[in-house]
Amino acid sequence: MDIRNEKEELLEVIHVNNYYDDNGLGILRKRGKKQVLHDISFTIHTDEFFGLVGESGCGKSTLGNAILNLIPYEGSIRLDGRETSQEGRKEFTKKVQAVFQDPMSALNPRKTIGFTLREPLRAHGIGTPKEQMEEVNRMLERIGLDASYADRYPKELSGGQRQRVCIGAALMLNPELVIADEAVSALDVSVGAQILNLFRDIDRKRDFAMLFISHNLNVVYYLCDRIAVMYRGRIVEIGTAEEIYRNPQHPYTKLLLAAIPDWNHRIEDDGTKTLAELEREYADLEAAREDAPGACCFYHRCPHACEECRKCPPETVNVTPDAEEEHLVSCRLHR
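^ that's the sequence the OP posted. Answer follows.
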């Protein structure tokens, strides 16, 4: 699936595939490769917050790691029109930074917060030690912590404070792109909301783009400008956050939205099925159908699947051809 428009493109992901070695289990195991990412294509525009949503195991983090050049892939990933695989590691990390799910594992427990925030500047030779500490203090203020935190260690901070430090460390080099992979899922609801509000405050300055990866569509809608919905290693729908949330077109997107209580109540008022009804229907279909090689990725669960869906995956169509922003769907319901 691909989405392009006239806005300036920062990141281009073009026909990306990824495989891992599947050696199986036991004496009779068969060696082979299992495909994780299937022909992924999309763009992220300059200063845009782009959400990638899907259930656990669908390939979201694998895609994030491919963009970060942490794993091999087939296809093309370009930043500012240049292949990321051709960038020097030092130059690449200056342009692209990441915030991961577990802040404790991302922080060195033996180093102070000030050292952690200062390290990117020191590694890239930016500023004098005095100027670097001034930047550290400015960043602490930006992420909602006072200057005294520079002398503290990670174990002295709460989970939310540690994640704030990780966000600050990612922003120290003024990157063009930040990849946030489940950045709030390990936090409790109230702390996660604070981190989202921090992202929103940072978002107002619009001096970098973000790929925000999450399994929670409600969170992605709250934060992002556009959303891509991923299922079984494929992107099945891309559109503006408002279009995806208010006018979902793919059956899987509707299932994700039905899991949101407020949305579920709203669609019941419209006479559509509840989450429980949808889950029962999809589970019955999954039990009755076997996966077919080459079929649509949602064939085994889709209530609208036909024989053609079993034979080959659908093409991607724009369901809003007259709108400024494209709304792309991979489903035969929209031929």
